[in-house]
Protein backbone atom coordinates (compact mmCIF):
# COMPACT_ATOMS: atom_id res chain seq x y z
CA UNK A 1 0.00 0.00 0.00
CA UNK A 2 1.20 3.51 -0.82
CA UNK A 3 2.46 5.33 2.33
CA UNK A 4 0.24 8.32 1.62
CA UNK A 5 -2.76 6.07 1.09
CA UNK A 6 -1.99 4.21 4.31
CA UNK A 7 -1.70 7.50 6.19
CA UNK A 8 -5.10 8.61 4.89
CA UNK A 9 -6.63 5.30 6.03
CA UNK A 10 -5.13 5.70 9.49
CA UNK A 11 -6.53 9.24 9.70
CA UNK A 12 -9.96 7.98 8.67
CA UNK A 13 -9.85 5.30 11.37
CA UNK A 14 -8.74 7.87 13.95
CA UNK A 15 -11.52 10.36 13.13
CA UNK A 16 -14.17 7.63 13.16
CA UNK A 17 -13.14 5.69 16.24
CA UNK A 18 -11.96 8.38 18.66
CA UNK A 19 -15.43 9.97 19.24
CA UNK A 20 -17.01 6.51 19.64
CA UNK A 21 -14.20 5.35 21.89
CA UNK A 22 -14.48 8.45 24.12
CA UNK A 23 -18.26 8.04 24.47
CA UNK A 24 -17.93 4.33 25.29
CA UNK A 25 -15.16 4.85 27.87
CA UNK A 26 -16.78 7.74 29.77
CA UNK A 27 -20.27 6.23 29.67
CA UNK A 28 -18.99 2.92 31.05
CA UNK A 29 -17.12 4.72 33.82
CA UNK A 30 -20.32 6.65 34.57
CA UNK A 31 -22.36 3.44 34.99
CA UNK A 32 -19.60 1.54 36.83
CA UNK A 33 -19.33 4.31 39.44
CA UNK A 34 -23.12 4.31 39.78
CA UNK A 35 -23.19 0.56 40.50
CA UNK A 36 -20.24 0.78 42.88
CA UNK A 37 -21.84 3.60 44.89
CA UNK A 38 -25.21 1.88 45.30
CA UNK A 39 -24.95 -1.02 47.78
CA UNK A 40 -28.41 -2.29 46.82
CA UNK A 41 -26.97 -3.21 43.42
CA UNK A 42 -24.24 -5.45 44.86
CA UNK A 43 -25.71 -8.78 43.80
CA UNK A 44 -24.98 -11.51 41.27
CA UNK A 45 -26.97 -10.13 38.29
CA UNK A 46 -25.30 -6.74 38.61
CA UNK A 47 -21.88 -8.37 39.04
CA UNK A 48 -22.38 -9.97 35.63
CA UNK A 49 -23.40 -6.62 34.21
CA UNK A 50 -20.38 -5.01 35.87
CA UNK A 51 -18.15 -7.58 34.17
CA UNK A 52 -19.80 -6.67 30.86
CA UNK A 53 -19.14 -2.99 31.50
CA UNK A 54 -15.46 -3.70 32.20
CA UNK A 55 -15.21 -5.71 28.97
CA UNK A 56 -17.00 -2.93 27.10
CA UNK A 57 -14.63 -0.37 28.63
CA UNK A 58 -11.65 -2.39 27.40
CA UNK A 59 -13.27 -2.70 23.98
CA UNK A 60 -13.70 1.06 23.89
CA UNK A 61 -10.00 1.49 24.68
CA UNK A 62 -9.04 -0.99 21.94
CA UNK A 63 -11.59 0.33 19.43
CA UNK A 64 -9.13 2.64 17.60
CA UNK A 65 -6.80 -0.33 17.05
CA UNK A 66 -9.31 -2.97 15.88
CA UNK A 67 -10.11 -1.49 12.41
CA UNK A 68 -6.37 -0.91 11.91
CA UNK A 69 -5.78 -4.65 12.11
CA UNK A 70 -6.43 -4.83 8.35
CA UNK A 71 -3.46 -2.54 7.63
CA UNK A 72 0.08 -3.88 7.18
CA UNK A 73 2.84 -2.74 9.54
CA UNK A 74 6.61 -3.14 9.82
CA UNK A 75 6.86 -5.09 13.07
CA UNK A 76 8.63 -8.15 14.37
CA UNK A 77 6.84 -11.36 15.32
CA UNK A 78 6.33 -10.69 19.06
CA UNK A 79 4.97 -7.18 18.67
CA UNK A 80 2.81 -8.32 15.77
CA UNK A 81 1.21 -11.01 17.95
CA UNK A 82 0.46 -8.55 20.74
CA UNK A 83 -1.14 -6.02 18.38
CA UNK A 84 -3.49 -8.63 16.89
CA UNK A 85 -4.13 -11.03 19.78
CA UNK A 86 -4.93 -8.49 22.52
CA UNK A 87 -7.74 -6.61 20.68
CA UNK A 88 -9.20 -9.91 19.51
CA UNK A 89 -9.24 -11.19 23.11
CA UNK A 90 -10.97 -8.03 24.34
CA UNK A 91 -13.63 -8.27 21.65
CA UNK A 92 -14.30 -11.98 22.29
CA UNK A 93 -14.51 -11.40 26.05
CA UNK A 94 -16.98 -8.58 25.43
CA UNK A 95 -19.09 -10.90 23.27
CA UNK A 96 -19.01 -13.70 25.88
CA UNK A 97 -19.98 -11.26 28.64
CA UNK A 98 -22.86 -9.96 26.52
CA UNK A 99 -24.18 -13.49 26.03
CA UNK A 100 -23.84 -14.23 29.76
CA UNK A 101 -25.79 -11.10 30.76
CA UNK A 102 -28.59 -11.94 28.33
CA UNK A 103 -28.59 -15.56 29.54
CA UNK A 104 -28.78 -14.59 33.21
CA UNK A 105 -31.65 -12.19 32.61
CA UNK A 106 -33.35 -14.76 30.41
CA UNK A 107 -33.28 -17.26 33.29
CA UNK A 108 -34.75 -14.65 35.64
CA UNK A 109 -37.68 -14.12 33.27
CA UNK A 110 -38.28 -17.75 32.32
CA UNK A 111 -37.96 -19.06 35.92
CA UNK A 112 -38.51 -16.08 38.22
CA UNK A 113 -38.99 -18.24 41.32
CA UNK A 114 -36.10 -20.65 40.76
CA UNK A 115 -33.48 -18.59 38.90
CA UNK A 116 -31.23 -18.44 41.97
CA UNK A 117 -30.87 -22.23 41.86
CA UNK A 118 -29.20 -22.30 38.43
CA UNK A 119 -25.45 -22.79 38.15
CA UNK A 120 -24.96 -19.19 37.04
CA UNK A 121 -25.90 -17.97 40.52
CA UNK A 122 -24.62 -20.89 42.57
CA UNK A 123 -21.18 -20.96 40.88
CA UNK A 124 -20.60 -17.30 40.15
CA UNK A 125 -16.74 -17.52 40.03
CA UNK A 126 -16.97 -20.39 37.52
CA UNK A 127 -19.49 -18.48 35.40
CA UNK A 128 -17.24 -15.43 35.49
CA UNK A 129 -14.27 -17.52 34.36
CA UNK A 130 -16.24 -18.88 31.40
CA UNK A 131 -16.56 -15.38 29.94
CA UNK A 132 -12.87 -14.44 30.31
CA UNK A 133 -10.72 -17.59 30.15
CA UNK A 134 -12.03 -19.22 26.91
CA UNK A 135 -11.66 -15.98 24.89
CA UNK A 136 -8.11 -15.60 26.21
CA UNK A 137 -7.23 -19.19 25.33
CA UNK A 138 -8.70 -19.00 21.84
CA UNK A 139 -7.21 -15.59 21.05
CA UNK A 140 -3.80 -16.86 22.19
CA UNK A 141 -3.74 -19.83 19.80
CA UNK A 142 -1.65 -17.95 17.21
CA UNK A 143 0.99 -17.39 19.90
CA UNK A 144 1.19 -21.17 20.43
CA UNK A 145 1.93 -21.90 16.79
CA UNK A 146 -1.37 -21.61 14.89
CA UNK A 147 -0.24 -18.84 12.56
CA UNK A 148 1.13 -18.26 9.06
CA UNK A 149 4.24 -16.36 10.07
CA UNK A 150 7.29 -17.01 7.87
CA UNK A 151 10.71 -15.92 9.06
CA UNK A 152 12.93 -14.14 6.51
CA UNK A 153 15.59 -16.41 4.98
CA UNK A 154 19.14 -15.72 6.09
CA UNK A 155 22.05 -15.66 3.70
CA UNK A 156 24.37 -18.59 3.67
CA UNK A 157 28.12 -18.65 2.79
CA UNK A 158 31.07 -20.94 3.36
CA UNK A 159 33.38 -18.15 4.40
CA UNK A 160 33.00 -17.39 8.14
CA UNK A 161 33.70 -13.66 7.88
CA UNK A 162 31.36 -13.30 4.97
CA UNK A 163 28.75 -15.32 6.85
CA UNK A 164 28.99 -13.01 9.85
CA UNK A 165 28.71 -9.86 7.74
CA UNK A 166 25.84 -11.20 5.70
CA UNK A 167 23.98 -12.49 8.76
CA UNK A 168 24.27 -9.05 10.35
CA UNK A 169 23.00 -7.45 7.17
CA UNK A 170 20.17 -9.97 6.95
CA UNK A 171 19.07 -9.22 10.53
CA UNK A 172 18.97 -5.52 9.76
CA UNK A 173 17.13 -6.16 6.53
CA UNK A 174 14.69 -8.55 8.19
CA UNK A 175 13.51 -5.80 10.50
CA UNK A 176 12.54 -3.83 7.42
CA UNK A 177 11.20 -6.82 5.47
CA UNK A 178 9.03 -8.25 8.30
CA UNK A 179 5.53 -7.14 7.38
CA UNK A 180 2.96 -7.60 10.12
CA UNK A 181 -0.40 -8.56 8.63
CA UNK A 182 -3.51 -10.27 9.97
CA UNK A 183 -3.06 -12.95 7.28
CA UNK A 184 0.24 -13.95 8.89
CA UNK A 185 -1.14 -14.02 12.43
CA UNK A 186 -4.61 -15.48 11.82
CA UNK A 187 -4.90 -18.46 9.45
CA UNK A 188 -8.02 -18.72 7.34
CA UNK A 189 -9.28 -21.68 9.40
CA UNK A 190 -8.84 -19.63 12.59
CA UNK A 191 -10.96 -16.78 11.18
CA UNK A 192 -13.67 -19.15 9.91
CA UNK A 193 -13.81 -20.92 13.28
CA UNK A 194 -14.07 -17.64 15.16
CA UNK A 195 -16.82 -16.24 12.94
CA UNK A 196 -18.86 -19.43 12.46
CA UNK A 197 -18.07 -21.12 15.77
CA UNK A 198 -18.06 -18.21 18.23
CA UNK A 199 -19.43 -14.93 16.87
CA UNK A 200 -22.37 -16.26 14.84
CA UNK A 201 -23.66 -18.68 17.57
CA UNK A 202 -23.37 -15.89 20.15
CA UNK A 203 -25.44 -13.53 18.01
CA UNK A 204 -28.04 -16.22 17.28
CA UNK A 205 -28.32 -17.16 20.96
CA UNK A 206 -28.87 -13.52 21.97
CA UNK A 207 -31.51 -13.10 19.26
CA UNK A 208 -33.23 -16.35 20.33
CA UNK A 209 -33.31 -15.31 24.00
CA UNK A 210 -34.68 -11.86 23.13
CA UNK A 211 -37.36 -13.41 20.92
CA UNK A 212 -38.30 -15.86 23.66
CA UNK A 213 -38.58 -13.06 26.24
CA UNK A 214 -40.82 -11.00 23.93
CA UNK A 215 -43.02 -14.05 23.33
CA UNK A 216 -43.35 -14.64 27.10
CA UNK A 217 -44.19 -10.98 27.63
CA UNK A 218 -46.84 -11.15 24.92
CA UNK A 219 -48.36 -14.27 26.47
CA UNK A 220 -48.49 -12.68 29.94
CA UNK A 221 -50.00 -9.54 28.46
CA UNK A 222 -52.82 -11.55 26.92
CA UNK A 223 -53.53 -13.25 30.26
CA UNK A 224 -53.63 -9.89 32.06
CA UNK A 225 -55.98 -8.48 29.44
CA UNK A 226 -58.30 -11.50 29.85
CA UNK A 227 -58.42 -10.96 33.61
CA UNK A 228 -59.24 -7.27 33.14
CA UNK A 229 -62.05 -8.14 30.74
CA UNK A 230 -63.46 -10.71 33.18
CA UNK A 231 -63.42 -8.17 36.02
CA UNK A 232 -65.10 -5.54 33.85
CA UNK A 233 -67.84 -8.01 32.89
CA UNK A 234 -68.50 -8.95 36.54
CA UNK A 235 -68.70 -5.31 37.53
CA UNK A 236 -70.73 -4.50 34.40
CA UNK A 237 -68.39 -1.71 33.44
CA UNK A 238 -67.08 -0.58 30.11
CA UNK A 239 -63.59 -1.77 29.10
CA UNK A 240 -60.97 0.40 30.76
CA UNK A 241 -58.04 2.08 29.08
CA UNK A 242 -55.61 -0.07 31.01
CA UNK A 243 -55.61 -2.79 28.32
CA UNK A 244 -54.81 -0.22 25.67
CA UNK A 245 -51.97 1.17 27.79
CA UNK A 246 -50.52 -2.32 28.23
CA UNK A 247 -50.65 -2.98 24.50
CA UNK A 248 -49.03 0.38 23.83
CA UNK A 249 -46.25 -0.37 26.33
CA UNK A 250 -45.61 -3.74 24.70
CA UNK A 251 -45.51 -2.11 21.26
CA UNK A 252 -42.96 0.40 22.55
CA UNK A 253 -40.87 -2.45 23.94
CA UNK A 254 -40.92 -4.29 20.60
CA UNK A 255 -40.06 -1.07 18.78
CA UNK A 256 -37.14 -0.41 21.15
CA UNK A 257 -35.78 -3.94 20.68
CA UNK A 258 -36.13 -3.70 16.90
CA UNK A 259 -34.45 -0.29 16.80
CA UNK A 260 -31.60 -1.54 18.98
CA UNK A 261 -31.13 -4.50 16.65
CA UNK A 262 -31.09 -2.28 13.56
CA UNK A 263 -28.70 0.29 15.03
CA UNK A 264 -26.35 -1.99 16.96
CA UNK A 265 -26.36 -5.36 15.19
CA UNK A 266 -27.02 -4.71 11.50
CA UNK A 267 -23.81 -2.69 10.89
CA UNK A 268 -21.74 -5.42 12.52
CA UNK A 269 -23.50 -8.14 10.52
CA UNK A 270 -22.77 -6.24 7.29
CA UNK A 271 -19.13 -5.87 8.36
CA UNK A 272 -18.84 -9.60 9.03
CA UNK A 273 -20.42 -10.46 5.67
CA UNK A 274 -17.97 -8.16 3.91
CA UNK A 275 -15.04 -9.73 5.77
CA UNK A 276 -16.05 -13.33 5.02
CA UNK A 277 -16.78 -12.53 1.36
CA UNK A 278 -13.41 -10.84 0.97
CA UNK A 279 -11.70 -13.80 2.62
CA UNK A 280 -13.39 -16.28 0.29
CA UNK A 281 -12.76 -14.30 -2.90
CA UNK A 282 -9.25 -13.20 -1.93
CA UNK A 283 -10.06 -9.50 -2.44
CA UNK A 284 -8.04 -7.09 -0.31
CA UNK A 285 -10.49 -4.65 1.31
CA UNK A 286 -8.01 -3.01 3.67
CA UNK A 287 -7.59 -0.09 1.25
CA UNK A 288 -11.35 0.38 0.85
CA UNK A 289 -12.79 3.36 2.66
CA UNK A 290 -16.22 1.69 2.81
CA UNK A 291 -14.77 -1.36 4.55
CA UNK A 292 -12.97 0.81 7.11
CA UNK A 293 -16.17 2.79 7.78
CA UNK A 294 -18.21 -0.40 8.22
CA UNK A 295 -15.59 -1.92 10.54
CA UNK A 296 -15.51 1.19 12.74
CA UNK A 297 -19.30 1.62 12.87
CA UNK A 298 -19.98 -2.13 13.18
CA UNK A 299 -17.72 -2.75 16.17
CA UNK A 300 -18.55 0.62 17.72
CA UNK A 301 -22.30 0.04 17.44
CA UNK A 302 -21.97 -3.34 19.15
CA UNK A 303 -20.08 -1.72 22.02
CA UNK A 304 -23.02 0.67 22.53
CA UNK A 305 -25.38 -2.17 23.56
CA UNK A 306 -24.26 -2.27 27.25
CA UNK A 307 -24.59 1.51 27.40
CA UNK A 308 -28.21 1.27 26.25
CA UNK A 309 -28.91 -1.40 28.87
CA UNK A 310 -27.14 0.58 31.60
CA UNK A 311 -28.42 4.09 30.90
CA UNK A 312 -32.00 2.78 30.62
CA UNK A 313 -31.84 1.66 34.27
CA UNK A 314 -32.26 4.60 36.64
CA UNK A 315 -30.69 2.66 39.52
CA UNK A 316 -27.35 2.63 37.69
CA UNK A 317 -27.34 6.35 36.93
CA UNK A 318 -28.99 7.65 40.11
CA UNK A 319 -25.82 8.16 42.24
CA UNK A 320 -23.98 10.10 39.53
CA UNK A 321 -27.13 12.05 38.72
CA UNK A 322 -27.35 13.15 42.35
CA UNK A 323 -23.75 14.30 42.33
CA UNK A 324 -24.28 16.21 39.08
CA UNK A 325 -27.44 17.79 40.50
CA UNK A 326 -25.59 18.92 43.64
CA UNK A 327 -22.78 20.41 41.56
CA UNK A 328 -25.28 22.21 39.35
CA UNK A 329 -27.16 23.61 42.38
CA UNK A 330 -23.90 24.80 43.95
CA UNK A 331 -22.85 26.43 40.70
CA UNK A 332 -26.22 28.16 40.35
CA UNK A 333 -26.09 29.21 44.02
CA UNK A 334 -22.66 30.70 43.49
CA UNK A 335 -23.89 32.61 40.46
CA UNK A 336 -26.90 33.96 42.40
CA UNK A 337 -24.63 35.14 45.24
CA UNK A 338 -22.43 36.95 42.73
CA UNK A 339 -25.46 38.66 41.16
CA UNK A 340 -26.69 39.75 44.60
CA UNK A 341 -23.22 41.10 45.48
CA UNK A 342 -23.15 43.10 42.25
UniProtKB/TrEMBL annotation:
Gene that this polypeptide is encoded by: LOC113052966
Membrane topology reported for the UniProt record: Multi-pass membrane protein
Superkingdom of source: Eukaryota
Keyword Membrane recorded: yes
Record keywords: Cell membrane, G-protein coupled receptor, Membrane, Receptor, Transducer, Transmembrane, Transmembrane helix
Annotated GO MF terms: G protein-coupled receptor activity
Source species: Carassius auratus
G-protein coupled receptors family 1 profile domain span: 27-309
Main location: membrane
Protein name: G-protein coupled bile acid receptor 1-like
Cellular location(s): Cell membrane
Amino acid sequence: MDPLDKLSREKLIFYLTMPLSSIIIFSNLFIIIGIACNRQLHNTPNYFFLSLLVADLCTGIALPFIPGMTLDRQLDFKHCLVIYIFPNFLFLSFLFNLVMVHYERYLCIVSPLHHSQFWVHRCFPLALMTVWVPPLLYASLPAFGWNNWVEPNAYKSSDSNETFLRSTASRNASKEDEVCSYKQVFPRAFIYLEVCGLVLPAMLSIAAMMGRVLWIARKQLRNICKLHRAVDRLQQQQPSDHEQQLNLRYAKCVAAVSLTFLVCWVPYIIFQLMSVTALQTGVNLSSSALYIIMSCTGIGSMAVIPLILGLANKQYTEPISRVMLKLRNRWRGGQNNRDIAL
